[in-house]
Design the sequence.
């Protein structure tokens, strides 16, 4: 069974938070444990909005534009990058390409979203890219915003509010058109974000579902297919072990991503048909796909 973007299972309230952020024209900040589906929301949101705006005067890109935050990121990096070194080398070699600066410019997530929302042949030529023929809305994902320097968070909101950028190397400013741009930011809460930044965002925290919550089982069924008979019984055994492993892990608790990989491997090895000793052996052999540190591995092995 192939997993589709539209199969993403939203926790209760997340869709309402997304639509509220769009209505208020604020970025949506998502927090939660790594592996709980924060990044995947951007894929689902782009698909959902492309369906929602299907009959609008503008199109909507069904794929999100993604910006991976680094410890050196600056707000202007959201718009475009300029490869000055390659341009300088071409100029020294006196190649014909040296005079065409567009070859050394590359739009980044927010810059490309702005360009797509207000496309023009002039902009396409300035940045050397292909743009849609009519305005197109889009979802911009700014992933792991808490990795960036502290100034980045406040600066980035100013840039999101303005939704325009100045192409210094071409001496021209470009602004957003009528098509909407939806911004989703994720944080793993590795460090506290400034209060001023938090005030200007819509916010949603993805809680990890408890064992009595059917959400996690729904997610697994979407990815791995519905289970019946012995496979369903075996999957329930493994769910119990998974939650025990989360409770036992002192450092990094396994989350949804680890569970999916672990279950897929065990089911591929026909776990449900094995006797109890063989099941324990398979669990232990594949344990490193569930827990990712030596400290957690030692603690979880005791459960076996």
Sequence:
């Amino acid at each position: 069974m192939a997993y589709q973007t539209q199969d993403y299972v939203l926790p209760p309230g997340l869709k309402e938070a997304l639509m509220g952020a769009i209505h208020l024209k604020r970025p949506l900040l998502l927090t939660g444990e790594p592996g709980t589906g924060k990044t995947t929301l951007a894929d689902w949101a782009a698909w959902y909005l492309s369906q929602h705006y299907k009959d609008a005067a503008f199109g909507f890109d069904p794929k999100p534009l993604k910006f991976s935050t680094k410890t050196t990121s600056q707000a202007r990096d959201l718009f475009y990058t300029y490869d000055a070194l390659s341009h300088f080398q071409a100029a020294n070699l006196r190649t014909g390409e040296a005079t065409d600066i567009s070859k050394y410019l590359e739009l980044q997530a927010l810059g490309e979203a702005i360009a797509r929302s207000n496309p023009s042949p002039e902009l396409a030529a300035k940045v050397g890219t292909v743009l849609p023929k009519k305005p197109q809305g889009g979802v911009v994902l700014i992933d792991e915003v808490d990795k960036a320097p502290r100034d980045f968070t406040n600066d980035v909101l100013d840039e999101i509010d303005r939704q325009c950028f100045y192409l210094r190397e071409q001496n021209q400013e470009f602004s957003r058109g009528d098509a909407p741009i939806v911004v989703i930011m994720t944080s793993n809460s590795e460090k506290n974000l400034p209060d001023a930044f938090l005030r200007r965002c819509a916010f949603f925290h993805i809680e990890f579902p408890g064992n009595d919550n059917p959400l996690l089982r729904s997610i697994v069924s979407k990815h791995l297919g519905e289970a019946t008979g012995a496979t369903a019984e075996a999957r329930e055994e493994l769910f119990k072990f998974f939650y025990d492993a989360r409770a036992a892990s002192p450092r990094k608790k396994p989350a949804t991503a680890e569970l999916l990989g672990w279950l897929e491997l065990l089911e591929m090895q026909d776990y449900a048909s094995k006797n109890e000793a063989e099941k324990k052996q398979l669990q232990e052999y594949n344990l490193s796909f569930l827990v990712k540190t030596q400290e957690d591995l030692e603690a979880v092995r005791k459960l076996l």
Summary: The chain is about 45% helix and 15% strand. The beta strands are 28-32, 59-60, 65-68, 80-82, 105-107, 136-143, 164-167, 172-175, 181-187, 202-206.
